[in-house]
Amino acid sequence: MDKTVALTGDRPTGKLHLGHFVGSLKNRINLQYSHDQYIMIADTQALTDYFENSQLVVDNIIEVLSDYLAVGIDPELSTIFIQSQVPALCELTMYYMNLVTVARLERNPTVKAELAQKDFGKSIPAGFLCYPVSQTADITAFKAEIVPVGEDQLPMIEQANEIVRRFNRLYDTKCLKEISAYLGETKRLVGIDGKAKASKSLNNAIFLCDSPDIIKEKVYAMFTDPDHLKVSDPGRVEGNVVFEYLDAFHPDAKEISALKAQYQKGGLGDIAIKSLLNDVLQRFLQPIREKRAGLKRKNLLDLCFEGTKKAKSVAEKTLCEVKSSMGIDLFEKCNFYQRNH
Ligand code: ATP
Ligand code: MG
């Protein structure tokens, strides 16, 4: 029996961080054994807000690839590909664009939150507003049914499913598959500054390749409870960044719950919990950093050449089915199908 398809991706706008790991990469490492997994480097999507700095996007493709390999994503098991090199995705986006209104795109909570962060003013690029449509194209092109993502992506999946249902109903077909999110145990890792989400763009994250000194510096600068002035003061654990990271990365949940109780009662200092978190993160990140440093960066792009070729052929096939459902497969029957069937 064919394996269920999983697809996800990352924007090459910077190196990957701990939020990516707990929200998505950890699940991808497991899914590559049980699913037919596609991992997309979303450079086309990154250009929707980095269009004036395309070189940054290109340079970060290698960084993201290095992070994948460093955490244990295996290009023999997962199909890694580059979005911009699969033109069928743009074509699908163009067709799906007719199935969603501008008002609906403007209401998407993730897009709304991101717009508030960026300073587009009244000059919002149309491409940026429409990126949820292009994500729908990415997912449906591979008939993916599960998407291992962080919580910020839930509105995207909801919007994608609306498009899928509308398309299937309108053209009386089962051509597109509905999608489910596959959330990490930690659905959203907070920023080290206490902001709702650690993110590349906000530069409020601990990166997978940060040096031991930088990790320590970031941990010791973390926001705790501003009213916890003396060690003996009772402290708050809700919204306390150090405890949120301990919850996500400390292997012993019982130990953390005992520490939380002690902190809430009073008698546990911020330095003690930061020192514990620093030890945990140093231990976790050291092998990842070392594996990353040992990679031969020059040959990295070659690793996704075959994956991109495969992705192109699968996406092209779905595009043909989509066009055929709409009745605009005018020449495909004699060209593509004859070549491929
Ligand atoms: P950017 O700021 O450029 O949007 P980002 O840090 O948000 O970058 P993305 O490339 O947009 O990262 O996200 C890739 C994947 O990682 C998505 O599935 C997203 O849900 C997940 N992810 C990113 N940040 C976090 C986080 N802080 N917690 C959990 N999951 C996250
Ligand atoms: Mg993002």
Q: Report the CATH architecture of the largest domain.
A: 3-Layer(aba) Sandwich
Instruction: Provide the gyration radius in Å.
Output: 22 Å
Order of helices and strands: EHEHHEHHHHHEHEHHHHHH
Total number of strands: 5
SS content category: mainly alpha
Low-confidence blocks of residues: none
Q: What molecules are bound to this protein?
A: adenosine-5'-triphosphate, magnesium ion
Q: Provide the β-strand percentage band.
A: 5-15%
Please give the order of strands in the largest beta sheet.
1-2-3
Continuous helix count = 15
Helical proportion? 40-55%
What is the gist of this entry?
With 341 residues, the protein is mainly alpha-helical. It has helices at 18-34, 43-50, 54-71, 88-96, 102-107, 109-117, 126-129, 131-141, 154-170, 212-220, 241-249, 253-265, 270-293, 305-326, 333-340, and strands at 5-10, 36-41, 78-82, 146-149, 180-183.
Describe the protein's topology.
Elements: E1 5-10, H1 18-34, E2 36-41, H2 43-50, H3 54-71, E3 78-82, H4 88-96, H5 102-107, H6 109-117, H7 126-129, H8 131-141, E4 146-149, H9 154-170, E5 180-183, H10 212-220, H11 241-249, H12 253-265, H13 270-293, H14 305-326, H15 333-340
Bound molecules: adenosine-5'-triphosphate and magnesium ion (MG).
Can you put this structure into words, describing what you see?
The chain contains 15 helices and five strands. It has two domains: 5-189 and 297-340, Rossmann fold (3-Layer(aba) Sandwich), CATH 3.40.50; 212-293, Tyrosyl-Transfer RNA Synthetase. It has 341 residues and is mainly α. Bound molecules: adenosine-5'-triphosphate and magnesium ion (MG). Adenosine-5'-triphosphate is lined by residues 8, 10-11, 13, 19-20, 22-24, 149-150, 152-153, 188-189, 197-201.
